[in-house]
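Intended use. Records like the one below are meant for learning the mapping from a protein sequence to its folded structure. Do not use them to infer anything beyond what is encoded.
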Amino acid sequence: MAILKNGYNLIYKDGQHIYEHRYKIEQKIGRKLLKEEHVHHRNGNRSDNRLNNLLLVTDIKAHRLVHKHWGRPMQPPCYCGVKSHARNLCRHHYNLLQTAHQRSALVHQS
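Structure written out for the chain above:
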């Protein structure tokens, strides 16, 4: 397996190099993907090819709608209900977490 500069995993199967995410979906549905079908990575991580992170979309228009509706990457909202910024937390709660980590680091340095 090789990880390409664009972040996708490339694997060697049946004498050819193919994208791992497409191969995994093909195995799941039991057929080759059509040329116009796309596989979306729910969390935006192109090398995360767990089946629960992959979503088969029918064409490029449907793929664009997924990104428009869910954003890039698709993240669940923060526990307070606000759209996630990082680590499944809104910007406010993420900043609080960062501040707590910084304070913790200062205590451990002394």
